Structures are given as structure tokens and as C-alpha cells.
Amino acid sequence: MRSPIRRVFDVVAVFVVAIYLAPIYWIGLTSIKPTTDINSRVPVWSFEPTMEHYVEAFTRFEFGKALVNSSVIVLSATFITMVLALFSAYALARMKMRGADTLSLLILSLRFMPGVVIAMPYYLMYQRIGLVDTHIGMIIIYVAYGLPFAVWLMRGFLRDFPAELEEAARLDGLGWLAIIRRIILPLSGPGIAVTAIFTFVFNWNEFLFALYITQSAAVTLPIQISKMIDVYTVLWGTISGAVVMQLVPMVVVVFLLQRHMIRGLALGAVK
Amino acid sequence: MTVQLSNLEKRFDDGTLAVKKVDLEIRGGEFFTLLGPSGCGKTTTLRLIAGLEEPTGGSVSINGRDVTRLDPAKRDVAMVFQSYALYPHMTVFDNLTLNLRVAGVTKGEARTRAHETAQLLDIERLLDKKPRKLSGGERQRVALGRAIIRQPSVFLMDEPLSNLDLKLREQMRTELKRLHQRLGITTVYVTHDQAEALILSDRVAVMRAGEVQQVSEPSDMYENPANLFVAEFIGSPGINLLQVALTPEAVRLGPTVLMPWKGREQGAAVLGARPEDVLVVPPEQGLLDGIVDFLEPSGPIVFAFIRLENADAVPVNRDHVVAAIDVHRQLDAGERVGLRFREQRLRLFDPESGRCLARPEAPKPMQEGVA
Fold first, then answer.
1. Quick one: closest CA in A to B163, which residue?
2. Residues B229-285: tens digit of each pLDDT
3. A98 FRET partner, CA 20 to 30 A, in A132, B42, B185, B320?
């Protein structure tokens, strides 16, 4: 039998999870409620489920285009960020370099800067070189803004990587590029997974830069959803449907990668 | 294939001088051991030979070729790491053959050599397994195999047996010796275990604080330590050390004359006597008096820990004098005994520098390295 204290903890845990899940549950519910039931003063618990809000998100609000834009921008940005972060982090973690620690902290400190401070300069620069409302413009911003944190996170993982494995590889004749590709990459699943999740989720939800830079051609999901609120109405049902659709890829990504997060680093390499 | 270290020095970025002016010449086909306590610079020296560290002074030559600035892979050396450092995501076969494939050896040739190596080490049935499925001893063999398969000029081994339990360590020790005799490849071996060093090696270099103390064959290292540090480090239980005085004609402990002395040095000295050179005799026949405190049986011999009764007797390194006696000899704890020494085997050391003092009447201790 579990001890009474454990039971108290269990109850608290369930309560906390419930608090986190309640809004998501409510959004899911709202997204399939008929509009009249959504607007009723007393919450309606039994209703005729409908897909009309989902359809409306696609037909009236070009949700499909925003979904494609977000996917292209975020996946490209995450991939580029990960490649650059892996190499920079490896250099900062392993190569003997004066001030590597200071440099890492300096890189991370770039992230302390509020985004709103650089959003306007980005807009002004982009206006001159024609990158406003383009995919490539958004990818550049997301890579630049996401890279410091990714580098910092990856550096921590790579520093814990057993140095003797790399040394064995050096003696086996592998150059540093081959060491990264054949030794570090296959064994850094957890570190890469964690960093990729953080980068992906941050970019997927990013609002501020997208608000400044995108208008229509490169508009991303969070911006498109915000357009469902205008001065006259708030389309709760449509918003809920769109939010559910925005949540799904994130949940999928986290579920796909969490297996790698749990898997231990370099099992069996060192006693 | 010889390895020559000249004036080798390594200062780390934080300022510590790990290796100080090391000069060593390792002969072709030799099993050479770097021995010393942790932090003495033996592993750093090995890593300098491997090329995993860059020296801040001096040079490394392998077979007459200066490799000081050369990449580890171009030195034709193979290393066995303390942690084995097997690639966990690859099978044993891939672990063994990675270096061959990088070097451009064909698949068929690599396969043949992997099977030959596996046969030599009796690990053929493990070739398709991943390292985490192997026991410690099996991982050790795979790590050895990865070094052997390359047929390098020099093997470098960094405490390869220290992660194994005692029984397995003894077994692998024999195996290493057999492999070395069979392959005849120059081997540089690092250990802090003096027994391991004496058993395996053709020659041993004892290091301390980045400096080589003595280079000798194992038996000579034991018989003729160059200084106090080596004398204490080699042998288990360790050598007995007593404070004595050198007078013009005798070595004295208080009023007792231990043996004649014709050397130049006078004044305080430290006398060293191995446990087997301490003779336990009836009290009336002894030069020194003592009481047996306790006995440590160790197979064919028993180590008697004897407390000296003489007022002037000041043991340097421990409270007891240890004598090795035959297991069949009757001796009880609490018994009063006399002690004598095998005079020719005693060594005298300078208490300041620790240097072994030459004895005019005894054969001069042989010294090859710097004292």
C-alpha cells in the first residue's frame, strides 16, 4: 500500500495537471461546439459536435496558407539552427580556446535582449533589402534569435560527452568532421532532441517578429489566428479550432522526440 | 620500434607542470611501464606520446622519426584507454574495423583481420554484439583488439586493467604478457600498481611529480632503488626505514652498531631494509629488541609486525618493523624477539635528498635514469 503522504502527493499532482489541462480541454471542447452553445451564458455540456469552425478557419482565414508558411519557416529555421548550433557548440566545448567560457556567456546574453528592441530595426533593414513578408526573412530572424540558446544548451550536452571516445576516434584516424558525424551525432540523441524541441516550440509560437515582418505572403499561424479577432467580433469557435490545429504539431514533435530525451547518453561506452 | 622522449615538458594552461624534462628511451619490442602515484605525470607522458596532448617543450620520436607535431593518427600508435572507450553505437566488429576502414583497407581484408584478431583474443562470438551487452573483461578484450588489429608500431596502454576485479585482472595480466611475447610490439604501459609493473615489464620508469626517478629492470628496481621515494614505492609491504647515524667506522642506531661503514658520508642517514632482509632471532642474539604486535599471513610467508623496544629506534615510515618469515615458523603475537639484518642487502639513504648512498664495501647500486 502507498503511504498516506504519497497519496497526498498524488492528489496534488493530479490537481496541478488538471489546472494545466483545463484550458486546453476547454479549447478543444469549444472548437467543436456550435456557435450558439459557445455564446450561451451557462456552460453547455451536451451539444451536437460540429466541424464548422475548422472549415471556417480554412475557408475564411486562409489557415492552410499560414500552416504551410509556419511549417516551411519553422522547420527550415530549426534545421539550420541545429546544424549551426552543433558545430559552434562543439567548438566552444572542445577546442582549446582562450575565453571560451566568457564567449559562451556572451553568446547566451544576446538572448537576454527583449525581442521588441530588435524587431523594429529588423523591419527597417528588411524594408530596404526587400525581405519584408518573405519566408527567408523570417528564417533568418528565427535562426539569429534562436541560435544563442541552442548553442548554450548543446554546449552543455557536448561537454558531458566522454572525451576518451573522441580521443579513441582521433587515434583511429577520424578527423573532427568525421568525429562529429560518426561518433558524436549518433550518440547525442538526447541533447539534440532537447535542443530541437526548444528551438521548434519557440519558433512555432513566436508572435512578435512575425507581427512586424509578415503581412500576407509569409504570414505565420499565430498572426493568422490573431486576425480572427476584429473590432466587431471575437470568433471563439474559429480561434479554438485554429489553436487546436496549431497545438497538434507541437504535441507530435514532443512525443516523437521524448524517447530520445529519456535514452541515456553513451550507454556502455565507459564503465 | 623505439620511442624516444627528449627533454619532454608539459605545462597545462592553468600553469601546472605535469611533465618535467623527461628523457626516456624505450627500446624496440620492449614492454616498458611508467609507474607512479596518481598525479605524477605518467598518463600525461603517455598522452604526449600518443599525440593527444601537445608538449610545451622537448620532442617525441618514434622509430627515429620526430612526431612531436604530428597528428595522433599519423604516429602509427594504438591506445587502450582506462575506460576502454568503445563506440557504444557500433558492434564489436565495427569497433575493431573502424580504423581499418578509415585507413582505406578493403571490406574483405578488414573482415579477415577482424576474425584473426577476434580469434587471438577469443572474442569471435561477440563480433555482432554492442559493447553494452559485454562484461567488463570482454570489453577489455575488445579494446585490446581494436589496438592489435592495426598492427601499430607502438601500443600505449593507460591503466587498462584498473576497472577489472582482482581475479580477472590477474588473468588479463597473464594474457597481456602472452600477447606481448607473441606479437613483440613495443608497449608503453601506465599503472600505479607496482606489482603489475614488476610482473609485466621488461623495464620500469618510476615517476614522481612529473620527473622520472629511476629507470630499471624490475628486479633491479627492487634491489637497488635510486632514492627513498622509489624504495618506498616499490614492494609490498613496503621497505622498513630507520633513522641511523653514520660514524667513521660504523652505522649506529643509538649505541648499537648495526654494521661497519667505510663511506665518506657522515651524520644522519636513513637505513632501508626489505621485510625479507629482517631476520627474527631469539632475543639474546638480536641487535635490536622487539615485540611481535601482530601477524599477517600471506600464503607461503607471514609478515610479522614488530614494535621496537630500543629507545633510540625511530621508524621513519611506520610504527612497526615488518619481517617476512616462513609460514611454518612458530611465532606468536606478544612474543619478545631479537632482530638482525642481512647486511649486504641494506641500503642507506641521505635524509635530505633521499639519494641512495653508495657503499664502498657493497656492489654499487646500478642506475640508469636520473636520480
1. A271
2. 999 999 889 999 999 999 888 898 888 888 888 888 888 999 999 999 999 999 999
3. B42
pLDDT digit string, tens, across residues B126-153:
999 999 999 888 999 999 999 999 999 9
B14: closest chain A residue by CA: A98
Among candidate residues B82, B51, B83, B85, the one with its CA nearest the CA of residue B191: B82
Summarised one tens digit per residue, pLDDT across range A29-83 is: 889 988 888 887 777 777 888 888 898 888 888 889 999 999 999 999 999 999 9
- Residue in B82, B86, B99 closest to A269 by CB: B86
Q: Is the peptide bond before B237 cis (omega within 30 degrees of 0)?
A: yes
Residues of B in contact with A171 (CB under 8 A): 50, 52, 72-73, 77-79, 99
Contact call for A271 and B84, based on CB within 8 A: yes
**Cβ pair A271:B87 closer than 8 A:** no
From chain A, pick out residues whose CB is under 8 angstroms from the CB of B164.
Answer: none
DSSP string, chain A: ---HHHHHHHHHHHHHHHHHHHHHHHHHHHHTS-HHHHT-SSPP-S-----HHHHHHHHTT-HHHHHHHHHHHHHHHHHHHHHHHHHHHHHHHHS--TTHHHHHHHHHHGGGS-HHHHHHHHHHHHHHHT-TT-HHHHHHHHHHHHHHHHHHHHHHHHHTS-HHHHHHHHHTT--HHHHIIIIIHHH-HHHHHHHHHHHHHHHHH--HHHHHH-SSTT--HHHHHHTTB-SS-B-HHHHHHHHHHHHHHHHHHHHHHHHHHHSPTTTTT--
Q: How far is CA A171 from CA A36, A164, A175, B33, B53, in A?
A: 72, 10, 10, 21, 12
Q: Which residues of B touch A268 (CB under 8 A)?
A: 86, 88, 130-134
b/e map B158-168, b = 16+ CB within 10 Å: bbbbebbeeee
CB nearest to A269's CB, from B78, B79, B131: B131
Residues in B closer than 8 angstroms to A187, CB to CB, are 88-89
Distance from CA of B89 to the nearest CA of A (A): 7
Global ipTM: 0.82
CB contact under 8 Å between A187 and B89, yes or no, is: yes
d(CA A75, CA A243): 19
Asked if B162 and A271 touch (Cβ cutoff 8 Å), the reply is no
Instruction: Compute and round to an integer the Cα radius of gyration of chain A.
Output: 23
Q: What is the pLDDT of residue A113?
A: 81
Cβ separation B102–A266 shorter than 8 A: no
End-to-end CA distance of chain B: 27
Instruction: Check B13 against A96: CB less than 8 A apart.
Output: yes
List of residues 6+ apart from A19 with CB closer than 8 A: none
CA distance B347 to B272: 5
> How do strand B278-281 and strand B288-298 relate by DSSP bridges?
unpaired
- Looking at beta carbons, which residues of chain B come within 8 Å of A270? 83-85
